[in-house]
Structure prediction request, 119 residues.
Amino acid sequence: MAIHDVENCDVYELHPDRLHRIEKEMPDEDTLYDLAELFKTFGDSTRIRILFALFEQETCVCDLAEALNMTQSAVSHQLKILKNAKLVGNRREGKTVIYFLSDDHVRTIIGQGLTHVKE
Prediction:
């Protein structure tokens, strides 16, 4: 999109009430950085596939690898990134490690994102 494709105001006029609200509500730089990092994590289609699989069913690396036609090593690498971002958690059941979405916030983000792209 060229810069000329974006509509601009015809006059330069500030609106103090709007500016005040933006300044008041704007999170600090560290929080914004963390939010950007979170969205970067969502910016990989392989990780989205894993999250979507876990949205449907908590499961182990073996089943994820089979369902996504990937190696266990590749799935494990992506799960580490997702776990570091606090998007997935895991628990041990005997010799099996089960992965799951870490909380309802992740479920909401995936669900709303899916709804948005289907509109």
In short: The chain has one domain: 14-118. Residues 14-118 form a domain with the Arc Repressor Mutant, subunit A fold (CATH 1.10.10.10). The CA atoms of residues 24 and 101 lie 33 Å apart.
